[in-house]
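Notes to self after the call with IL:
- keep both proteins in one doc
- input above output, always
- annotate only the second one for now

Protein 1:
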Amino acid sequence: MTDRFSSVLIANRGEIACRIIRTAKVLGYRTVAVASDADRDALHTELADEVVRIGGFHPGESYLDQTKILDAARRSSAEAIHPGYGFLSENAGFARACREAGLIFIGPSPEAIELMGDKARAKRAMIAAGVPCIPGYEDEDQDEARFVEAAEAAGYPVMVKAAAGGGGRGMRIVRRAEELSSALKAAKAEAESAFGSSGLILEKAVENARHVEVQVFGDSHGTIIHLGERDCSLQRRHQKVIEEAPSPAVSEELRRKMGEAAIRAAAAVSYEGAGTVEFLLADDGSFYFLEMNTRLQVEHPVTEEVLGLDLVELQLRVAQGLPLGLQQEDVTLLGHAIEARLYAEDPAAGFLPSIGKIALFEPGEGLRTDTGVRTGSEVTPYYDSMLAKLIAHGRTREEAVRKLLAGLDDTVCFGPLTNLRYLKELIRSETFRSGEARTTTIDGMEPPERPSPTAEQLALIGALITTDQAARGPSVPESLRFFSSSERIVRTVLIEMNGIAHALRVAGGPHHFEVGDIEVTLPPLEGQRGTAELGGKSTPFAFAADEDTYHLSFPEMDVSVQDVTYRRGAGKDEAGAGAVTASMHGQLTDVFIQEGQRVEKGQKLLILEAMKMQHEITAPTTGTVSEVRAKAGTQVASGDLLVTIEIEAEEPS
């Protein structure tokens, strides 16, 4: 059989674009990347054989613009398009446009995408196919009154979900009737922004359940099989954080039943290519259809690791019109695999997304790392905040956990704040180790606190900054260089961390220091890691410098500090405690207050959209709004003053 295509355009970015490019190149395909203005220097553009610049910063101006993607395919003479996940991967119109343009769409048919992408139609089709479904509301009438009636009939709590798309966007849990109206509005706005469709459905919330999904694969020769299940129960804001295969809660018999149901679901739409049927699994073994993702999943590596397969290779094979080459009896699970998603976010600040330049990224040894970033990459506010997927495989679940923890302990990511430490806490938790995680586990946990460095760690920070500054003078290079002078150094280093200032008096050098009353021995670094002697105790660390910001990783914590020794003092914002500032870069979509209005502490003031998520900004205090600088539709930067509140004076007791 003659190949239908020999060149592939990857209509995506980040780690999934890199992942697809690597397999395609191994198989001899010519690869074409597309890049927005925000991604002009991204890793995926370096890996591809050819890059087409499509301009724009926001997804709607670039990766979601079908005309630009199809034009890029024409300009590069690509013969096939792989959509990855997200963006246009589940857009039936785009799949159809590819077909009309004479391009091979590496995925299922437009008809299958269209049916499964409409959660209402999909549920009706699944019921007809004998797949168990959650009761709820999925009609075309989107009048709020219909949702109110359906929620009352189902009983609270209920879930409001975007009818198109997934990934937790456009999804809200509603526990009381009075919350439904605002949840519908927020979900519609988020769904429109993320998927270009504001349609919603409503489902009874099945709480304390597990999220278990089954990987399916079909070809054009009538074969449809399942490749086992993945447990994705550890979620935050309905987005998966840690996934594993197989599920610790699924027996061989239950695997057979869920697999058969998943195959019935795929067969109902004559499915071709990679797809995932998602279920909620109750403690009694009953399971309910959530949705079908008609694409490759973010967490597909854990399935690959336990099966020894390359799912992208299988996608390309099926897209060529070849038989899948596998039967159900060929599928054998070998060992256990766990994946942890590394996000650019601040767990101690409610997991707000974080942006900035990555000063150092070194994944731990022994892990499979799927990533779209490296040292020097810029994390922007325009796209999803996931930086990498870190995967471990073992002969048993216990071995996989042990390998993953060892690899995470050895991983360093400096620059934007990340959830690296939080991932280790989750994996070390008794709930996860015992295999009892649920979709509500993370939501029920106390938010982590941002730790403070010890005196010994502060001493090492002072010694490192002193050495670095002496080596390079007033300018800061990206890596640490050590000076060779034998003269004794005595200086005061002023640093700021988490809004707290520290004055460190440093004496000595170049490798032996006294910081306060703590002795520091600091041998030359090999690369950007080293071991220091702090008060007679050996302490390993990693280090990176970026302008006046210094990043250090200790076994117990990560620290980012700013050297403010020569910075002019700046007083607090004139608005004081009544200042409401932007917590991140993004776009203001709603402003709910006006000058002269009285507000209560915790009252919703604004909606800020960043990284495809909508974030509520609330009043930090009770008082009267004296100034509103915020305007709906405008872009703001982290730290921008949005609203000023005149604080009410406390009544004398």
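Protein 2 (the one to annotate):
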Amino acid sequence: MRFRLAPLAAAVALLIPALSAAPAHAEAAAPPQAKDLDQVVVTATRTLLDVDAVLAPVEVIDRDAIERSQARSLPDLLAGRAGVSLANQGGTGKLTTLFLRGAESDHIVVLVDGIRVGSPTSGLVSLQNLPVALIERIEIVRGPRSSLYGSEAIGGVIQIFTRRDAAGWAPRMHIGGGSHGAHEYGVGFAGREGRAWFGADYAFQRTEGFNACDVAEPTPFSGGCFISTPEPDLDGYVQHALSLRTGIDLGHWQLSAQGLRSEGENDFDGDYSNRSETLQQVVGGSVRWRPSDTAQFKLTAGRNVDASDQFNHGTYIGFFDTDRDSAGLQGDFGLARDHLLSVGVDWVRDRVDGDTVYVTDERDNRAAFAQYQARAGRHGLQAAVRRDDNEQFGGHTTGSLAWGLDFAGGWRVSAGWGTAFKAPTFNELYYPFFGNPDLRPEESETAELGVGWKNGTVDLRLDAFDTRVEDLIAFDAAIGLPNNVERARMRGAELGIATDVADWQVAASLSWLDTRNRTFNTDLELPRRARHGARVELDRAFGDLRIGLTGIAEGPRYDDVANTMRLAGRATLDLRAEYALTRALTLQGRVANVFDRDYETVAFYNQPGREWFVTLRYAPAD
């Protein structure tokens, strides 16, 4: 394998990663610790903002919720949440695509610690290769965000924060095993000393897997598997992951550095290749300067590497290697109390290397943006505009506007509007004998309304949206190439509630989605999006014992554009329990898909049946 974990330490030493900036009119403070982050979000506005003041639909999954859920992968953690549909090709480590509010998988911006990630060739993010054991928290922002983040932010933005560091010295470790020969372990430490912070975490995961493709007879290009000869073997997955971080607060100046490296070995079914060795690496750096209580500046830089070596029955057949370099400078200015102006510039360079020869293998994107946030009495306002200039497709301007009004009794109504776009990928533009260099960006416009209520132990929010996308890129039989020939409409509603009932913690979400392909008035549903979805989590503590369950239900979906292959819906139930053996030692156990339901999210690809897993965690109490 050409990938090694060791180079990460050297890469981190060269760069200094971004920590999210606080509003410019706030007092200077040390970097937020985990307990502080529970009360704020940064992804919705690129500034620290109290979670109750955010006008956009946002969901936050913190470390406590991650460990309580006992999810073993990022797709497992995200499944069934409001607005989210997942399509997986055969279990842990296999290709997993995420649709948010019905938007395409490449219509979502994903950030890791503020650094943009994803493949410039396919436009996808390898969610299955981002280790959940090294994640501190996740922020999901639904709705268009191109006015702040540029290309791809049609459906929304997902930001992943790696593990954070607490005061003093905090070692931790875990070990576990379960079904399908699965086992994992991890070790790490974190701490603060004076003005400096530091930490490192390593995680290992392995599973023998199961037969990914449900094809018993030779059928050329059979459904989604695209194999001519069945391979009834176990399709396993191995992952090594390392996270490092450090930084120092010098008062008006703050420097920090962190990086994440994940290496995987993945077996699957396929004619061209049936094994890959993958690499996901994110490193970045930030320098923050706060000259006064009303102004601050943040300079960031980072790189994401998405690479893979391909094998067929042990024979090396090729590779791809994509780099995404990014940098940004943002200034936040407190114009008056509760009035904040943010301006900035962003730069991104995508580069492609591999066996496939592209006519163009590198491109730059430069952008400038401005955002104004204000609060006056019971009213909240957020407005943003951005201009992107890409050397391949030229300039594009996007904007957004959101307003909220608070009422007595904890009620709030909000309304928003935004435009967004998505630049064509390298594969769509330049893949030999397939790409079309004359493609234009896909464009969208979204309107949304929301109502929320927060009163004591109840937090409820209902959001409705309508998104229309023009110039969708699809295969055009008339020219034998991809072309801007399709139109689509996605509309729906999402309901989320968190409360306590008779000592039970309850978190639930419901989603309704109606997608339509409006090309040539076909009015067909977009594939692999469930029309209905629900997730409910119940947890309760009985002294040192905690029990819980997660139920997920999804309606039927179509697997193809023509709506001829219908996949049935599914309903699964996971049970979990944990017991505090000591203040530092916890034993966890989980049974997933208790009733052993058989279902598919992509045609012909198996999903795991009933699974069990046991984990022992060590983390000294504060």
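Annotation: Confidence is low (pLDDT under 50) at residues 6-35. The helical segments are 7-14, 34-37, 63-69, 74-78, 146-149, 426-430.
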